[in-house]
Structure formats: C-alpha cells, structure tokens
Design a protein that fits this description.
Keywords: ATP-binding, Helicase, Hydrolase, Nucleotide-binding, RNA-binding
Strand content: 5-15%
Structural class: alpha/beta
GO molecular function: ATP binding; hydrolase activity; RNA binding; RNA helicase activity
Distance between the termini: 33 Å
Number of helices: 22
Helix content: 25-40%
Family: Belongs to the DEAD box helicase family.
Radius of gyration: 25 Å
EC number: 3.6.4.13
Largest sheet: 8 strands, parallel
Shape: globular
Biased composition (Gly residues): 531-540
Strand order of the largest sheet: 1-8-2-7-6-3-5-4
C-alpha cells in the first residue's frame, strides 16, 4: 500500500479525562496540560497498572505528549494497528512505541498468572540507526519496566563485545534494541533466530535515518530472516521525522497492506531551517578552514558574553576532522570545555561524552553526523557546520540540534570558496546572512599543528581526500585536482614536511590508481584476526 492512499491522522486522540534512578526521556517540547492523562489508560484497562504507576509516580508524567495522545489508542491492544508515524525527535515518540509493544508482551506473558512469564522468546525488536539512540531506547524500556524486573531488555550494537551480547540474549531477552549490522551478525546464530520465533512487535525508529545511512539491504535481510507473518503474526511500527519515497518503500517491507499513517507534525509548522538565523562564512581556501572555524567560535563566545551559557556543536565531515577541530579548539584559551565524539571511540567513551555534554550548560562538542539525528541535547545555542555536508538533509538535521522547544538558536555554515556551490544550489531556498571570516587564529593553529604527530596528520589527509572524492562533481574537480588540493591542504593546513603516504589498497578503494601526486606505499601486514566485536551497525 502506498502512503498516499493510507488513512491519515493529524494528532487526533480521545478527549482528555476530567526522584529516584528512573531514566526520564529527554524532551525538547513542553508537556501540554490539555492532552489525555496516562491514568486514563489504566482506567480503561489498556495498560498494565504497574506500568502506569511507573509513568505517573516514578517518572512523574501526568499528561501525554501529543505524539503519544495521537498514537497510543491505535497502537495498543486490542487494535495493534500497523502504523507509519511521522514525528520529530524529542517529542516523546519512544514511549509512543514502547508502551504498546510492552503491553502486548505483558498481555501475552501474564495471561496465565500474574508474575509468570514465558521462556526467553523475544517479544519486541527495535531497530535503531545508531548506537547512542539504541542505548537511549533501552534505557527508556528499562525505566518503564522497573516495577516488573523479571523482564529483560538487551542491546545489540557495534563497539561492544559480540560474544557477551549473544550470551545475554540467549540467557533471557524479552526486548531487543539493535543496530542493523550487529543484528545481522547475531542472526547468523540459529539460537538467536529461534529466540525471534514468536516476535510480537517490530519497530523501526528513525526510519528515514536508517535509509539515509544505506541500511535498506540490511533491513531486507533482517525481515527476510524473521518468521513469516502469516504463520506468526506481529505488529509493525515505523517512526520517521520525514516521509520520503524511500520511507514508503520500507513501509511496504515492514507493515501490512492497509497500514495507517499518523502525522504528529502540525500542518504548516515551520522547520528549524525556516526560522533559525543562519550565517554563511567563506574562507579563501581549504588551508584557512581550521583558522576560520576557530575565529567563528571565538566570535560567538565573545558575542554571547562570559555570563551566558554557550553550548555549541561543531559538525565535521569525518571522524578524523572532528578529532582535529576538537584538538585545536581545546588548545585555544578562553573557550568553554571542548570534547569530541565520533565512531572510532569505544562505546563507553562515547556514552560518557554524550552524557557529560547533555548535562553541561556551556560546552563545545565536535562531532560527525553520528549525533545529527535521534540524539537530543538541551540548550544547544549554536550549531557550526564546517565544510559541505554529505547532502541537504544532513545540513537540515544538524541545524535541528539547536532552537529546540521554541528556544532561540543560531546556525553558522563555514566553507572554503570552492564549496560555494552547496549553499548556492543545494540550499538555494535558505537566505543566509553573510559574515566575514576571521583568520586571526592562523598562528595559533600553526603552533598546534607543529606539535601534532605526523601519523595523525596522515590520517586526516586521507580522510579529507576520501570525503572530497565524493564531492568532485560539485567542486568541478577531476582526480588530479583532488590530489593537488589534498596535498596543498596537507602542506599548508596540517604543516606536513612532505606529502603523507597512502597505502596502495586505499588508493584503489578511492578509485585513484594512476593519479599523479600520490605518495603510495605498500599495504601494511594485517594484524591477526581476533574478536573485533562484529559489525558496527550504526553511524559515523
């Protein structure tokens, strides 16, 4: 069924009725006082009373968020409709899909006698695009089940020990939150497939993000390995901030014909990129980008003033460049604390950085698109985007980290002159405020580069060339110009004494064999293969 023919609802719901260690989900919108109360669900015997007590007494939620009010009656038993729900992050959507799925599990497992549960069969499977979002969903599921401790929530994500995960899943798992790549790894085990034999609910959260990250083949593989829905009926839910054609395709894969489409975004509501002031800074060349970034950050810190919070995210195209910008900013006096977040870090490290930044009033986080969607950080005042993003939607979602819950925010887009094609054509509907570049930090940046390890510079060089290899059409470069620009960047921006080396296999992967100007070396011997933790399965 095509979404265009699906029954559509805009935030409709039945009328409203006249501190501990619980995880309270981060919300970026105020909780209204005119929506139904969670207690209404208990009064209608729709949700287990202990879960309602958890929500109202432990989590201190009385009224529902609009997305919850619009969807719960449709998703809860006995209806259990298959639904595609359009909802933004930070609006309470996680509870909107967890509560119906958990109630289905409880209805099925507590049918014989209160307190008894069935064997280790998985009732709910949630697929998330990133590790951080998966952990956030798992925390909310555990919080909702805190009065029912016999039920176990497990996660399957990259960056953790795969064997330990597998043991935990097989030891007992009622709810599994997973990223696609790691889930496929586990599904190669027949015992894990057996645990999924009577799956009750399948949820895809941030469906558009899953598809933007190229997970459609993985999703097809996962659904193909799940039990046939005719033999083992299950409910399907898709939650997505945007509804693009590829989202309709995955809806046909996961949902039954006749599924319902519920939009919880009011018609005519403006998006962040339509209401937040956005400044455009151009620097003359790529060698000036880092200094321009430092100048832009310093300018904003000075503008805000020392007494006011300054909470910024600096988005970089790659993990190596996020590390570079974070390192440079951490060496600049007078700035708030600086941290870096990208996929090369261990999961424990990423979690600590994420939590520390979320709790900070003033801080700077240098990151990749791993946090552009799904992760909510309160109080972000400014979003810096350094270099062209991978696509238009990436720009928009990054900007959406600021100006949440009707707060003010600001976007600053800093590019080299050669990248001017992106705001001119890809973002042509956005009216940018032109801002002069401040390159006064060049000497400070040069001193930081002098102290940086040459191997680290080589990694940045390769990452830079690999990223802009994908933008040659917009830049109007050929392969030789790409290499020339990369070598200039290494020499003038990174301060390398000679062109960094690049392994032969890397050259091949970039499609640069035979291109002049590269300093090619043989591949290094690969280390012995051990337990590397399986697939990453989630984001950059």
């Amino acid at each position: 069924m095509d979404i265009d023919d699906a029954p559509t609802t805009h935030t409709s719901a039945p009328p409203a009725a006249a501190a501990d260690d619980s995880y309270k989900p981060p919300l970026t919108e105020a909780i209204p006082q005119d929506t139904p109360r969670f207690a209404d669900l208990a009064g209608q015997n729709l949700v287990h009373p202990q879960v309602i007590q958890t929500i109202t007494e432990d989590l201190k939620f009385d009224h529902m968020m609009p997305v919850q009010a619009a969807t719960l009656w449709e998703l809860l038993p006995p209806h259990r409709s298959d639904c595609l729900v359009q909802a933004k992050t930070g609006t309470g959507k996680t509870v909107a899909f967890l509560l119906p799925a958990l109630q289905t599990m409880l209805t099925k497992t507590l049918g014989a006698a209160a307190g008894n549960k069935r064997d280790s069969a998985i009732s709910l499977l949630v697929i998330s695009p990133t590790r951080e979002l998966a952990m956030q969903i798992a925390a909310e599921a555990n919080s909702l089940l805190q009065r029912l401790p016999k039920y176990r929530v497990r996660i399957a994500i990259g960056g953790t020990n795969k064997d330990r995960e597998e043991r935990q899943i097989l030891d007992g798992c009622d709810v599994l939150i997973a990223t696609p790549g790691r889930l496929i790894d586990h599904m190669s085990n027949e015992d894990v497939l057996y645990a999924l034999r009577s799956l009750d609910t399948l949820v895809l959260d941030e469906a558009d993000r899953l598809l933007d990250m190229g997970f459609m083949p993985a999703l097809r593989e996962i659904v193909g390995k799940l039990p046939d829905r005719k033999a083992s009926p299950r409910q399907g839910m898709l939650f997505s901030a945007t509804i693009a054609p590829h989202v309709k395709q995955v809806a046909g894969l996961v949902l039954v014909p006749g599924y319902k489409f519920i939009s919880t975004i009011p018609e005519g509501e403006s998006n962040t990129h339509e209401r937040v002031p956005q400044h455009l800074i151009k620097v003359p060349d790529f060698a000036s980008v880092t200094a321009g970034m430092v100048g832009a950050v310093r300018h904003e810190v000075a503008r805000v003033g020392s007494g006011a919070p300054f909470k910024a995210i600096v988005f970089a195209p790659t993990a190596a460049m996020a590390g570079l910008y974070g390192h440079v900013l951490s060496q600049i006096a007078g700035l708030p604390p600086v941290s870096t977040l990208h996929s090369r870090m261990t999961q424990n490290r990423r979690t600590k950085i994420t939590n520390d930044y979320r709790d900070s009033k003033s801080a700077i986080l240098c990151a990749t698109d791993v946090i552009a969607r799904g992760m909510d950080f309160p109080g972000v005042t400014t979003v810096f985007q350094v270099g062209v993003p991978s696509e238009k939607q990436s720009y928009i979602h990054r900007l959406g980290r600021t100006a949440r819950a009707d707060a003010e925010g600001k976007g600053i887009f800093l590019i080299a002159e050669d990248e001017a094609f992106f705001p001119k054509w890809t973002l042509k509907e956005i009216t940018f405020i032109t801002q002069d570049a401040d390159l006064s930090a060049q000497p400070e940046v040069a001193r930081v580069m002098e102290r940086m390890d040459e191997e680290e510079k080589a990694q940045i060089y390769k990452a830079w060339m690999g990223y802009y290899n994908n933008h040659m059409k917009g830049l109007r470069w050929d392969k030789e110009e790409l290499v020339r620009q990369a070598n200039t960047y290494a020499r003038e921006a990174l301060g390398t004494p000679e062109t960094p080396t690049i392994q032969r296999s890397t050259v091949g992967k970039m499609g640069l064999r035979g291109t002049r100007g590269l300093n090619i070396v043989p591949d290094r011997p690969k280390p012995p293969r051990g337990n590397r933790g399986g697939r990453g399965g989630g984001g950059r």
